[in-house]
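Comment on the following before class.
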Amino acid sequence: MYEADVLSILPELLPRLWAFALRLSRNQRDAEELVQRACLHALERKHQLKPNISPLNRMFSLVHSVWLDKLRTRSVRGRTGIQSSDSFLETAAAPAARRPDADVINRQVLKAVDQLPHAQRTLLLLIVVEGLSYQEAAEILNMPIDTIMTGLFRARLTIGAKFIGAVTLEC
């Protein structure tokens, strides 16, 4: 992909990249920084782009890599954890939820996803939210597909366990 191609395709990828970064970081400023750094990295290293990887998947990979670097930096500096905010839940809630009960369920699911370990949350975001295949997620995260499948299974079990007994059936 040439520089002109990278420059022309980035604007259409930005909304999905920003949403992915926001869900990863749970912070608007961090998400903006992640996307900016990933775009800069893509432009600086355009010669490293592989023709068999879609630009969107490459950018997801870059956003994730930048996020991991940021987490490592925070860890080295002695910062503990990342606090999510209610504004994240409001931003990430499904815009189509018009019923109050659906909105409550959406918030509960988002909160459960928010509490997952980083690796499991990332897998859910890529596969469930972004609709990528297991193979694409494996390429983005540079992991074996079996690890992807196991991590996603565990993430779904963890979230499902939080809702067992909380669901009532209507007859």
